[in-house]
Specification:
Blueprint: H1 13-60, H2 64-73, E1 85-88, E2 91-96, H3 97-116, H4 125-143, H5 151-192
Antiparallel strand pairs: 1-2
Helix pairs in contact: 1-2, 1-3, 1-5, 3-5, 4-5
């Protein structure tokens, strides 16, 4: 490990050792996250979808308390209006149809991205705006009371939004994470010699 340079000479060797250890841990964390970010984000999207489906399954199994707590926690992500949501096992899914479509499509697009991560170019902002505009139109016309959307439109527009978001963001993340971990890998290689 390279020695840290200090502007003040009166820093104790103990403090220097602690600082070097802290930097080593931060570098290890950044190296791990930079190498595994895609799996972590896919796991987050999978967990969001799974939890939304687990809430009604728990309630159906008689675990009303845990299911209700899980259901309530999804209010942070969704309005949970019953007439815009699906029901399984006789209980409402914890997210509306549009949000379920968004997170399912983000999870599946993230899995798909793992196969093309080195070659897929980011979606242009122009195409991104075109792909998310249907959801904006559907959502805002519904919000302002001009019309009521149906489950088909909510699922299609949510899916377009989810796929477009992954296509826009993940190639940029891939480039950024590679740039972040390259110096860390190079440093480990030079220290190992």
């Amino acid at each position: 490990m390279s020695k840290l340079s200090y502007e003040v000479d009166d820093i104790s060797p103990t403090r220097r050792a602690i600082d070097e250890k802290l930097i080593s841990w931060i570098e290890a964390f950044l190296g791990f996250f930079g190498s595994h970010w895609l799996a972590l984000l896919n796991f987050v999207n999978f967990s969001i979808v799974s939890g939304a489906l687990l809430a009604p399954a728990l309630m159906s199994a008689g675990l009303i308390g845990p299911g209700g707590i899980l259901f309530s926690s999804y209010r942070l992500l969704c309005h949970q209006l019953p007439f815009r949501s699906d029901f399984i096992f006789g209980y409402q899914v914890a997210m509306c149809q549009r949000n379920m479509a968004i997170y399912i499509s983000m999870f599946l697009a993230g899995i798909g991205f793992s196969f093309v991560r080195r070659t897929l170019k980011p979606l242009s902002w122009r195409w991104y705006l075109m792909l998310i505009t249907p959801m904006a139109i559907d959502g805002f016309t519904q919000l302002f009371g001009f019309r009521e959307s149906n489950w088909t439109l909510r699922v299609i527009t949510g899916t377009l939004f989810g796929i477009a978001t992954i296509w826009l963001a993940y190639p940029h993340l891939e480039i950024g994470m590679r740039q972040m971990i390259e110096p860390l890998v190079h440093k480990q290689d030079t220290e190992g010699q």
